[in-house]
Amino acid sequence: MPPVTPEAHPLPARIELQDLSLWYGDTQALRSISLTAPERRITALIGPSGCGKSTLLRCLNRMNDLIPGVRLRGVCRVGGVDVQDPAIDVTRLRRRVGMIFQKSNPFPRSVFDNVAFGLRIGGCSGSELEGRVRSALQRAALWDEVKDRLEDHALRLSGGQQQRLCIARAVAVEPEVLLMDEPASALDPVSAARIEDLIRELREAYTILLVTHQMQQAARLSDFTAFIHQGELIELDQTERLFSQPRDPRTEDYVTGRLR
Amino acid sequence: MRRRIPAWVFPRFSGVITGALVTGMVCLIVGMAWVAGPHVSWRWVFGAGSMAGDPFDPGRAGLLPLLMGTAARTVLMALAVIPAGVLTGVYLAEYAPPTARLPRLLRGVVQILAGVPGVIFGLFGLGFLVGVLGGSIDRLIGPSDAVVWGKPGLLWASWTLALMTLPVVVVATEEALRSVPRELREAAIALGATRFEVLMRVLLPEALPGIATGVILAIGRASGEVVPLLFTGAAVATEGPPVLSGRFMDLAYQVFVLATQSPDPERSRPLLLASVWVLVFLSLLLNAAAAILRHRVSPPTTERL
Known about the structure:
The complex is a heterodimer.
Chain A: E1 13-24, E2 27-38, E3 42-46, H1 53-60, E4 70-78, E5 81-82, H2 90-96, E6 97-100, H3 111-121, H4 126-139, H5 143-146, H6 159-172, E7 177-181, H7 189-202, E8 207-211, H8 215-221, E9 224-229, E10 232-238, H9 239-244, H10 249-255
Parallel strand pairs in A: 3-8, 3-9, 6-7, 7-8
Antiparallel strand pairs in A: 1-2, 1-4, 4-5, 9-10
Helix pairs in contact in A: 3-4, 3-6, 4-6, 6-7
Chain B: H1 9-36, H2 42-46, H3 64-95, H4 101-115, H5 118-141, H6 154-178, H7 182-190, H8 195-223, H9 227-232, H10 251-260, H11 265-297
């Protein structure tokens, strides 16, 4: 199968996968996936549970390194850099490629310390630190709600606020790419809608890869959508076209709710 | 037909048992304070001549050397067991490859250590720490015949206790690190933290209450332990404050001595009772401190989950 790419979008690709395969031990989770995701756009990954979307996401910041027995073949580039290259500094890669998890996971300490975590690791301190924490909270649309309670324990925030705090924490270190793994799925509809608004705003500054199992969310938010099924990339297209005129019958079955 | 036990029986039964136990313990403590309290005299607690007193003479014995010796061996033990135990626990939980042979062996050894009786530790302290280690140090540094480290003393006694309580700290550290939620590790790693930064900035702070509990348990276990001290350095009476290489007086050991070795048991009984009272008081204090510490260090986030 030739690599599936959105037809002639003008933007340079920020993320490129070429023939990427991945195995957990003897089980193959990704099968020769080739795709590109353009800069400052949202590319959604949809597909049934266990199809490999989260695994694919975790290749880009090498979180799969943490799992013993993972093998990879193929190329995975972020901003032109091969992330598998043994010469690169993985911690620097992870600062360039931020990640938001399905379940919000703030550190059990203050709001400020959460956002400051990555900055402090990078050696930032003092008034510069305060300024960058503030701007990160502003970018995550959380500043107005927490500006008077920066020293409060992060777990006292509401679920939606906690997830926005995690987004602030990720953008604080100024990444180029944001990987979002079902970022709104554990939230109530109102909080989820606020996260979606935020993601739409973040699109201006970051390349976003959004894993979601909600097709409506992909349709609402993303510029491009990739449908993955059993570790294979079935189809990647402009979101509107993928949902209205899918080329592959499996995509059609999935988006119309017949394939699970 | 089988008769069913009425529903009120069990709660009432367990309530009665609990009540009886609690009442019994309170009676024991109050009774002991009642009997022993009057014998805790100011002169005994703060007596000026207490250092070189006759330990069996209520007119001359004093508490101070007992407290100093007990404090010294507890602090020295903690100074040894905290770094050794925490580092071992960190290695086992974070760095050891899960299936490799060395960590499995290490874990096995730690478990065996936990079950070895105190008397064996005493013997080990005497044979290895005093004999081999102390003897070698003397041969290396001292003039030919001087015996400084090659005899039972405070340092060796403390290290013997440290070895004995090592499993408590190792297991507490390992468990505490393992129970840190995976999400927090992932959050830190995804922000570009190195393994060491994750350990220092996320895992250890999260594990601190568990580690502190382990350390206090270790101190609690060691502070009531007498047997290893018999071999490694406790003395009935010493002159002057405790030094690292010298014998030392110890409260728990003194209770044993006063109860079994007194030339005139009738006359030294007040001392025995007073020593018991202080020992129980200190142990209650330690437990209270542990409870307060645990409460204060643990994050106020029980609503999570």
